[in-house]
Amino acid sequence: MQSDDPVLWSGLRSVLSKESLIVAALRTAPVVLAPAIVISNIIWAKVEFADRHPEKVSWETPSVSQTLVDTYVGEVFALWMLPTALLLVYAAYRVGQLHLSFLNSPAGSSSRGRLGPWWIVPLAFLFQIIAAAGMVLLSQYTSNINVALHLSGSYMLFLGHTISISMSGFVCYRLAQAQGSRPTCLNPRMNALRVVMAGMILSGALVYFVVYTIRNEPLPVAEPVVHSFIVNFEVALLVMFVGYLASFAHELFRYECARQAGMLQDTRMFSSSKP
């Protein structure tokens, strides 16, 4: 099945009932909904904190963690992150199945030797679970409640997303290099774009980690400049983390439509045998 074949997908939509299209859309929705909730809550937390504490933002831009110190902001943010974490895990699971659907296809079977170990996909999913758990941990335990747990959640979030997306980017790279038929349901141009996105996220995360680690050391730039870089780059990384996941939305919808039409079998993430 060619992901960029308009005739195929036009025919697929014509044979699906309205109910089947709705089911496919609902199963795809978390891939877009979870990133939207995360980004909107980050923006809301910063705006709400600025409204409630104008004297604090007048001289320094607060980080996301600093905005959660406000009781009201922290409680609302933590409440939203609970269902969002579940949506992220579900979305990551479906994206993993999308990758594995190619490995189960005839083209994937002939290309498997060039694609690398199949278990990278479920391993990337496990790291997404760690990231989601970290998001819940840091929001439930803000720095004014328990600094150690809050920092642990932050590291889980950033490391989990970075490692998972790097693994997914590697899979996308090997899929793009695979000869023969194009990956099932995956658009080649989006696949190539995600390779670039994964590289940017990995590089950005490394830069952020280095700057964050040496922020208290004597540096050739002023401390406010370093703080501003960390705060703004943190938000950029968080947006890129969830944006990478959202990039699969259209292809995942096609995958779900193909499943509804009986053209594809659902793929188990963890199996006792290799795909």
In short:
By secondary structure, this protein is an all-alpha fold. The chain has helices spanning 6-15, 18-52, 54-57, 64-67, 71-103, 106-115, 120-140, 147-177, 188-213, 223-246, 249-260.
Mean pLDDT over the full residue set: 84
| Whole-number tally of structural domains | 1
The number of helical elements comes to 11
Percent helix among the residues? over 70%
Structural class: mainly alpha
End-to-end gap:
18 Å
Q: Stretches where pLDDT falls below 50 for ≥5 residues?
A: 1-7, 179-183
Largest sheet: none
Instruction: Count every beta strand, where a strand is a DSSP E run of 2 or more residues.
Output: 0
**Range of strand content:** under 5%
The gyration radius over C-alpha positions equals 21 Å
Global outline: globular
Structure commentary:
With 275 residues, the protein is mainly alpha-helical. It has one domain. The protein contains eleven helices and no strands. The longest helix is centred in the N-terminal third of the chain and has 35 residues, at 18-52.
Q: Key terms for this structure?
A:
76% helix, mainly alpha, 275 residues, disordered N terminus, 11 helices, globular
Produce the secondary structure layout.
Elements: H1 6-15, H2 18-52, H3 54-57, H4 64-67, H5 71-103, H6 106-115, H7 120-140, H8 147-177, H9 188-213, H10 223-246, H11 249-260
Helix pairs in contact: 2-5, 2-10, 2-11, 5-7, 7-8, 8-9, 9-10
